[in-house]
Amino acid sequence: MEILSTPAAMTAWSQRARSGGMTVGLVPTMGFLHDGHLSLMRQLRSRVDRLVVSIYVNPLQFGPSEDLSSYPRDREGDLAKCASVGVDAVFVPEDLYPDGFSTLVSVNGLTEHLCGASRPGHFDGVCTVVARLFGVVRPDEAVFGEKDFQQLMVIRRMVEDLALPVRVLPGALMRDPDGLAMSSRNTYLSAEDRARALSIHRALGAMQAAEAAGERRVSALRSLGRAALDVDRLDYLEVVDALTLAPVDRVDGPARVAIAAWVGRPRLIDNMPLGPSLRWI
Amino acid sequence: MEILSTPAAMTAWSQRARSGGMTVGLVPTMGFLHDGHLSLMRQLRSRVDRLVVSIYVNPLQFGPSEDLSSYPRDREGDLAKCASVGVDAVFVPEDLYPDGFSTLVSVNGLTEHLCGASRPGHFDGVCTVVARLFGVVRPDEAVFGEKDFQQLMVIRRMVEDLALPVRVLPGALMRDPDGLAMSSRNTYLSAEDRARALSIHRALGAMQAAEAAGERRVSALRSLGRAALDVDRLDYLEVVDALTLAPVDRVDGPARVAIAAWVGRPRLIDNMPLGPSLRWI
Q1: Contacting residues for B161 by C-beta, under 8 A, at least 6 apart
Q2: Is-catalytic flag, A37?
Q3: CATH class held by domain A2-171
Q4: Are B135 and B162 in contact (CB under 8 A)?
Q5: Sequence ranges of chain A with CATH classification 3.30.1300.10
Q6: For testing contact with chain B, the best of A127, A161, A164 (most B CBs within 10 A)
Q7: A179-196 pLDDT, tens per residue?
């Protein structure tokens, strides 16, 4: 497994692979890898000749009061995990951005809702880093997990709009056995907070079950969800159209219920599908 | 010469060329082609196997009070001119952007000055359309004329920042025999206005000559330039650092003098180098 620490080395490595007729896949991460990340890697492993994982805690996507400086890191553990699933190259740039970097990529519309509303600038940072990673790595395919459902939809929009030569695949949201959505930020949870954090999963599950049983009214579903929650502060609990991410009043087509809430120290997010399945194109 | 009218057809054409081992060059234009455009095409013709010219009047780069609806067009004349310099494919999309398009690419810093200051949003529109054209056409090389010097520098910045796989080359600014910088918008000039528009070229020339004779003080150079101008309204006359485009007080390194002014109906722009030459990398 190769460790590449500069954009130039990464591009050259990828270029060599592609000029040898091989396809390249990318799983972009911020490190502190868990089984959710490994699931994305395994998914892409079987589809491409050369699998790249990038590990970069991107300052652009953190707000001034967010947890950039304390974001958890574990370089050695991450490399061992990558090796265990057959990753070919790990891209760990110290400086991802060139001197004088001054470009911003943003997606409107989709980012007005959910995390886009409560984390101003977050998705500009995400789009910008992903556009640059795509430029540096030049993958044929990349996977983004459904845990960050809005991020997945925003990246797919950007790729279509800029006609970028990469196929963006959705990756399954992975849960611990108790139902908690896997997240690097779970490491911040005390045992007690972790027990309360499970209420997010239960709230989503209750809403999904009620919808499956015929309740289409979002007001009723939301009441059900809110009643199940035991969190310190709810950021949002929204039922949105699965494609536009705009809030809906009734579940009449593919929809998504998404929750963001603080439990103890971390802000956690989770989501589940409601209504008919989304057909990924 | 092929005429391609959809992004999908353009991408497929370019894909075929590249998978046959050929290099592809792109000259992006808004049509109403003149010898300045043809000079860019000839420059690239000798460097690439397949030469593409795009013709698209991009709404995103026009302000609400600007001349989008009246921008001059001449489809038949443009195609004949492209054929005359050996263009392989002309990309004339009716709809360049996909349904639901909502991505914006912007470059900060460089766009605070000159036209960026007087045309808010203009360079966001330019960056966005060029990023999409690069995605659709996937050229190995592209040329942007020094007539739009700020645009050239902004596009080079975007390409470096997003690590786009295209080399951006500067193309020489072309002038009519009387010195007027070639521009599609010159067609708006009456004979009388055209004579007055030549004062822009004379002002630039006087400043360049004075600098070459040893005058480094920008205040003195600007006075000289302003005295030579006979325009209806001056937008700006600035001496800027050739790399950062920030105004300078003295010409101590590669610099550029740039003028934007209204003469009769059109707003015209022109520029010349001052001081040591810029070394293009």
Answers
A1: A97, A98, A101, A102, A103, A132, B107
A2: yes
A3: alpha beta
A4: no
A5: 184-274
A6: A161
A7: 999 999 999 999 999 999
